Amino acid sequence: MTPLVIAALGALMVATAFLSGLFGMAGGMILIGVLLMLMPLPTAMVLHAITQMASNGWRAFLWRAHIRWRPVFVYLIGCGLALGVWSLTRYVPDKPIALLLLGVTPFMARLMPKNLKPNPDSIWQGSFYGFICMGLMLMTGVSGPLMDTFFLGGNFGRREVVATKATCQVASHLTKLIYFGGIIDQAATLDPVLAAVAIAASMLGTTVARRILEAMSDAQFRTWAHRLITTVAGYYILYGSWLLATRASALAF
């Protein structure tokens, strides 16, 4: 990549890390969509994994006093099971399917029956969500929308949501890095300069967001988080549908 493109990606990573640092969500969802437009899916997944590990790892460190460790350990059980299953198939989706899944996920999560309200402290729910979220991570690059719904359904304050989810996400993105960087047949490689820019940009955006999160109320946090996720998800549904329609039209001719 040219220095100009790397600089533009660095600026985007600062902005998306800021969003994730503020709401604990959405930034990674925006970033993977842009990366999928610019590069092959395995490469986009590897770069996204490195960026999100830096962003979430730094966020978890900044809010370490608010991490709820029980949900983290239970979530990791599901992640491990999912990696084992996906390693047998080595499935890699194409871009339109990945984008559509990316957009549909938040709406599917919200359609769950009210009597199945997410409970982050439940062992079986945590393992189940860990398995499903990790599967989505390996298909779309993110599992944030579903994980957001899971943690927002519990009795967590905004700091606990951000800190606990960030810790889970570090493990999720590490698993994704292992899968797309070494397990699949078309494993990706990455420019070390771009990787360094991604790490620095993610830490900067996360740090800047901290003060604003401190000033928000829990009600404001939840309201704006839901609005942001809905807007971004709607865009990916439209974009993924357009790619599928364009491909179908090209094949017809």
From TrEMBL:
<protein>
    <recommendedName>
        <fullName>Probable membrane transporter protein</fullName>
    </recommendedName>
</protein>
<keyword id="KW-1003">Cell membrane</keyword>
<dbReference type="InterPro" id="IPR002781">
    <property type="entry name" value="TM_pro_TauE-like"/>
</dbReference>
<feature type="transmembrane region" description="Helical">
    <location>
        <begin position="225"/>
        <end position="245"/>
    </location>
</feature>
<keyword id="KW-0472">Membrane</keyword>
<keyword id="KW-1133">Transmembrane helix</keyword>
<keyword id="KW-0812">Transmembrane</keyword>
<feature type="transmembrane region" description="Helical">
    <location>
        <begin position="72"/>
        <end position="91"/>
    </location>
</feature>
<feature type="transmembrane region" description="Helical">
    <location>
        <begin position="128"/>
        <end position="147"/>
    </location>
</feature>
<comment type="similarity">
    <text>Belongs to the 4-toluene sulfonate uptake permease (TSUP) (TC 2.A.102) family.</text>
</comment>
<dbReference type="Pfam" id="PF01925">
    <property type="entry name" value="TauE"/>
</dbReference>
<feature type="transmembrane region" description="Helical">
    <location>
        <begin position="97"/>
        <end position="116"/>
    </location>
</feature>
<feature type="transmembrane region" description="Helical">
    <location>
        <begin position="29"/>
        <end position="51"/>
    </location>
</feature>
<dbReference type="GO" id="GO:0005886">
    <property type="term" value="C:plasma membrane"/>
</dbReference>
